[in-house]
Amino acid sequence: MDLLEIGSAVSRGPGLSKGYLKTGELPDGRPMQIPVIILRGARSGPTLWLHGCVHGNEFCGAFIIHECLRSLQAGDLAGTVVALPLLNITASERNQRMSPYEGYNGGDLNRNFPGNATGTLTQQMAHHIYDQLKRHADYLVDFHTAMTVDVHWALYANMPGIVGEKSEGMARAFGFKSTLPAPPDILAGSAMMTAAKDGVPSLIVEAGGKGHAFTDEIVADGAERLRNVMRHLEMLPGAVRDYGKLWYFSNFAWVHASRGGLFQRAVRCDDRVEVGTVLGHYYDLYGDPAGEALSPNAGIVLAIHPGPVMASGETLVHIGLDPREV
Amino acid sequence: MKKISIGTVTLAEAGVAKGMLQVGYLPEGYPMEIPVIAIRGHEPGPTVWLHGCVHGNEYCGAFIIHRLLRALDPKVLKGTVIALPVLNITGFQRNQRMSPFEGYNGGDLNRCFPGKPDGTLTEQMAYQIFRHLREHADYFVDMHTAFTADTRWALFAPRDGELGGKAEAMARAFGFANTLPTPLDILGGSALIEAAKLGIPGLIVEAGGVGAGFAPETVADAAERLQNVLRRLGMLPGAVKDHGKLTFFSNFAWCNATRGGLFRAAVKTGQRIAKGDIVGRYYDVHGDLVEEAKSPHAGIVLAIAGGPVMPNGEILVHVGLDPRAA
After folding, report:
1. What is the pTM of this model?
2. Which of A210, A301, B40, B76 keeps 20 to 30 A from B277, CA to CA?
């Protein structure tokens, strides 16, 4: 078997290798480094690349990745799993979306791929990560959360041809009922779209909410669905579970709050909304009702801001548009 | 009736007044001001003083107080309710326990009472709040959260003598099963203890978790329990609900984490534990289990860390000691 080296994680044959990939340097000069786990199977096969915490406070994905890896044995595996469960580690330290060390515009790591070796902190992080992904990945699954524990939806890179077909295959094997065949012109700079344009079939999973807004059950379920993707990719033995019909959307609406204040949501994920449906209630500092947030779109709620406080411009709601069962 | 003059809130007779109390200045010179709501009934009675968000990210309390206030009618109320639902407003803005503007040691507002007019930012906030509390309050209720949504416990002070009897009556009317009769030698600098030392019986309520970690049901339930406290104090009509036997403790043990990392709780609040029981598990960035955190005490779990990542020194668990039915 060939040598596989990603940062200090070095694999010479079947089994587990762990190490760190340097993605930058901290203000005191120490390396900014992220964990890398390589599980090399006994038989040859594709390389599945896993991302977690590209947004620092979306921790559930790290736990899903860890739980899945702990359940795998090299003897059962065909191919290689490469996991980077804590991509934006300095943001994760601070329970933030973006790195506290990013001093310039554009701190969303998942809008900066493929990155720039001489760019901003976040652009350089993206470069170091993507440089490895591009060399090794045959498939990508990128774990995110949205805002609340009841989030469960997925997006796949709906590219023309074989990349789109394979991405769809992964999405159906993961089997979250609400799934967006993502048009190639959205989410520019995301690992999913960047990798897909470079020929890597890709899937984003949105499971649970930020911080600790997720449960052990969500982690276990995510790990099992990930194993099902691996069975679909013939990396693991066993029958591929058919999750049945999914809800596909034409796109999703990313709606920003046009006002701020104390806020309580009035809908849950999977609720169907129409134009004008009340999404939540605002209150002033005295507790008096101060208006409502109304849906600008019809569709299915994929994510909703729970409050309890919100600034203007925050993400209010993600709505899956034109749902159809496929 | 004694005239109320708190910031811009003035109330000489029955009615409702809402306004702002200045507690400091922001760096650009704008006032740092917090909401004050006073509701005075037509009939005389005691004054109950309510605090929320003394820790800026403990939002549930503001919502509980707001819900209570919306249910109060001067035509029905005997006495006065004065509410300061968002005490540490700059922490509230930033989803932080302490103010982002506090540049010196001691940013926990609930360790700074009675405060100092010429101290640090937080000491000055405390002074501007407590000077009005000591003038008006006959009874005091302070709404807090712990970390996780299932948190439900209370503390009352003092615990001895006639004043202790009054505080205990408040606690029984609120009726959270797990309740600590609080010795006056802990929580120094808290509004509860400093008010108790001045002869004002009080209650701290711990309901729900930080940030968005609370359910609307918790808000509704706690607001109703506050109404029961007001009924017990003769301020609202209606039968006082008997919540039955409570569980009292001799004290509570505040355990700090001696290591950091990815953390999953292994207990829920309300659970009885023995010394040495596993309260949570630490994992490293590669997903390996590194330590099982064990409780140094036997008792009942009052609060447990939510993680999912934490440095050492964070609160791991609060354990109620020597539980007894009372």
Report:
1. 0.94
2. A210
